[in-house]
Amino acid sequence: MKNLKKPPWLKKRIPPLQDLQKVKTILDKGGLHTVCEEARCPNLGECFSQGTATFLILGEVCTRNCGFCAVEHGIPVLPYETESEKVAQAVRKMGLQYVVITSVTRDDLPDGGASHFAKTIQAIRKQDQGIKIEVLIPDFKGDHSSLGKVLEASPDVLNHNVETIQRLYSEVRPQANYKRSLNLLKKSKELHPNIHTKSGFMLGLGETHQGIIELMEGLREAECDLLTIGQYLQPRRDRLPVEKYISPEEFEEYQKIGMEMGFKAVASAPFVRSSFHASEMFADTSN
């Protein structure tokens, strides 16, 4: 197994514990989970200290076992009926004006958890109609009726990550399908063209420059509006190793290429994650 030394640009300052405590207390009292914690995101400290978090609904156990992800794999429990209301209450207490909601993949549920996404969007809207909502959804096994349930609840951004190039799917996302993910983004535009679509992928898993360009072209063909590109970091020892650390200059190059391709906004840097500074990215689309 590879054990590459992290380059200097991947060092991150951890904020003081007291700066994180407010968000952590609100989440703990509501019995809520965040993808920040479950996926061991390197930006957790920065986001929590700034009063933001990405809510993880439908439990913390995933029915899939992707090679890059730290979220626990296994048999999840049934969704909590009160979870949507608790998320909405946490949003109010945190004073958020832009909310990101994601979930584990729930292949065990008839609609993949789509109705739970819709219920959570509706609960937040009851708190404040002005809050912008981004949902980062699984692929729902390609079920367009499940996708439709989420879109009918009118999120502002529909995000679904492709994660990597097509050639690496069998290793990185063995229970997913590259074309299915692109088709989901395309179908979203067909069903609700006014809802922004977003996707993201990681670098450092063994992809080639040509493969990255082809992936970006595929996303544009699917009419994807917003794109995030970040460095893959091994979250724990039993996950895929890092094949390469990509320089900040290479990330900048892909950002320029993406904008030239016609994406409305591209965030491309080592620490970029799909929901990191999501509100600023959304704001760029209206400038």
How do the helices and strands line up, and which of them pair or pack?
Blueprint: H1 17-29, E1 33-34, H2 35-38, H3 44-49, E2 54-57, E3 61-62, E4 72-73, H4 83-94, E5 98-103, H5 114-127, E6 132-136, H6 144-152, E7 157-159, H7 169-172, H8 178-191, E8 196-203, H9 209-221, E9 226-231, H10 248-261, E10 265-268, H11 278-284
Parallel strand pairs: 2-5, 3-4, 5-6, 6-7, 7-8, 8-9, 9-10
Antiparallel strand pairs: 1-2
Helix pairs in contact: 4-5, 5-6, 6-8
Concise account of the structure shown:
The protein has 287 residues and is α/β, with parallel strands linked by helices. It has helices spanning 17-29, 35-38, 44-49, 83-94, 114-127, 144-152, 169-172, 178-191, 209-221, 248-261, 278-284; strands at 33-34, 54-57, 61-62, 72-73, 98-103, 132-136, 157-159, 196-203, 226-231, 265-268.
Rounded Rg: 18 Å
**Main sheet specs:** 8 strands, mixed
Strand percentage: 5-15%
Can you give the helix content as a percent range?
Answer: 25-40%
CATH class: Alpha Beta
Strand order of the largest sheet: 1-2-5-6-7-8-9-10
* Distance separating the two termini: 46 Å
Q: In the residues, how many domains can be counted?
A: 1
Helical/strand content category: alpha/beta
Helix-strand pattern: HEHHEEEHEHEHEHHEHEHEH
What is the molecular shape?
Answer: globular
The CATH architecture classification is Alpha-Beta Barrel
The CATH homologous superfamily: Aldolase class I
CATH fold label: TIM Barrel
